[in-house]
Amino acid sequence: MKKILLTLLCLLASASSMAQVVNAKGVATVSYTKKITPQQKEAAYVAAQVAAIERYFAENGEAEAENFDAIKPKVEANLDKFVMSTTVLTEQDQPTLSKYSIAVRTEINLAKLRTTLRANSEAGKAAPASNSEMVYVFVAREAASVKSFDAKVVQRRDVEAKGQVTSSVSDKGREGESIGNSSVSTNASRNRAVKVDGSTSVTVTTGGSSTQKTDESTYRVMSMANYRTSVTSVFSQAGFKVSDPDFVLSDADMKSVNADYAKGDDLTPATVRGIVASLRKESIPLVVLATFDAGVPSDDPATGLRRVTVTVTARVLDVQGPRPREVASVPAVQYVAVAPDSTVASTKAMKDASIAASREIVSRLNAGGVR
User: Fold this and answer.
1) Which candidate, 144, 145, 290, 275, places its Cα nearest to that of 221?
2) Residue 127 pLDDT more than 70?
3) Domains (range + CATH), the chain
4) Cβ contacts of 281 within 8 Å, gap of 6 or more
5) In sequence order, which residues have a C-beta less than 8 Å from that of residue 203 and are 6 or more positions away?
């Protein structure tokens, strides 16, 4: 029973993460001369709601914020279509400063806002027949093996010894002779003194170095078939004509993509040239290349459930000109999901990441005026 409840909670969390109604807070301040008027209070109330929507888009990245700026006048003029409900959190009147502040929490109709953003984009304004055709190549992978290296340690010990010996020798002697009646006798004596002084000093110097190699990782490519429909829907709703890579890229192209991402973090120049040649052959101008790195499952410290993090990177190439050029890119962004077991958490994280990454790519294409 407990596991069923946890699963239901995770499903609800998944639904809320991709919900079309979101909550956001906004604050606005107005200045007045002598006394705040009802009209000025109403203006502050409206400005706080607009600030809440603006804050939501700002938290979702520069591209989203830039896209919102283009439709901000339309939102202000039709606020009731985009804000479903508003709750006043605090009001503060400061007569000494002649300022009035208000903070609100709003329920934002995200679906309506995204529809307005799409209609305002270059792809949305253009006729469907003139919109660009694109192919996306999304590769998901997880670490298959990681080789770690111990630190290589080199130690050195230098020993220097110095010695000095000093000696001195002195001799003292005496000889004598005595003459008798028929004989001569001699005698002699010698004293010798030797003095030796010595000293030795030893100096020891130690040192060395330590070299640490980075880990070598190999990856296992995962299937993205379960998320293809969701991704295609995001690009299609944005006005782009999406072509299935299976019908555009050759088998050799896909094998090269999988082989490159199984070994490293980027495609080799030969693989990119092969993809570009296939796209030009089919007269398709745009290709989206994205990787999804699923981390090792771990225990979530807050809930005790299993936690999986997916890191996404993406780039969009325009291959129409003499040389391909990058028209949009998404730096590494992480998405986290929790669930009762690792499999469910990994599936949820991959789904959320693929949809969120697709929307981020569309936002950056819209901000760049690509259609």
Assistant:
1) 144
2) no
3) 20-120 (3.10.129.140), 126-148+215-371 (3.40.50.10610), 152-210 (no CATH)
4) none
5) 159, 160, 161, 162
Q: What is the mean pLDDT of residues 216-230?
A: 82
What single-letter amino acid sits at 3? Answer: K
Query: Is it the case that residue 30 has pLDDT exceeding 80?
Result: yes
Give the separation between CA 59 and CA 24, rounded to whole angstroms.
Answer: 10
Where does the chain have alpha helices with state H? 2-17, 38-59, 62-77, 79-82, 110-120, 122-125, 228-237, 251-263, 269-281, 342-367
Burial of 131 (0-12, 13-18, 19+ CB in 10 A): middle
Gap between the Cα atoms of 92 and 90, Å rounded: 7
Q: Residue 167 is encoded by which pair of tokens? A: 């000696």
Phi-psi region of 130 (alpha: psi -120 to 50; beta: other; left: phi over 0): alpha
Select the more confidently predicted residue: 110 or 274: 274
DSSP 256-293: HHHHHHHHSSS--HHHHHHHHHHHHHTT--EEEEEEEE
Residues 6 or more apart whose CB falls under 8 angstroms from that of 291 comprise 138, 139, 140, 141, 261, 265, 312, 313, 314
Token representation of residue 221: 């490519």
- pLDDT tens profile 32-71: 988 899 999 999 999 999 999 999 888 877 777 888 888 8
Strand duo 298-299 + 306-318: pairing: antiparallel
pLDDT of residue 173: 60
Predicted local distance difference test score (pLDDT) of residue 2: 43
pLDDT tens digits for range 237-251? 888 899 989 889 999
Least confident of 64-73, 188-197, 272-281: 188-197
- Over residues 221-245, the mean pLDDT reads 87
Closest CA to 227 of 312, 148, 131, 330: 312
